[in-house]
Fold:
Amino acid sequence: MSEISNRIVQKLWSYCNVLSDDGLSYQDYLEQLTYILFLKMADERATATGDAQASLGRRAECSA
Structure:
């Protein structure tokens, strides 16, 4: 596993530990971490393409 992958895994486990210590169940914190990762990926995609509307807001506008 690469250094970047190791850092991501370590960060995720640290978030899991924090959420678990706060009383969330495995399923609850898995849902929260999945949502955080989704938002982070959307933000990075928007940043990489320079398209400020590449976020979730544009999709919501298109379906309305």
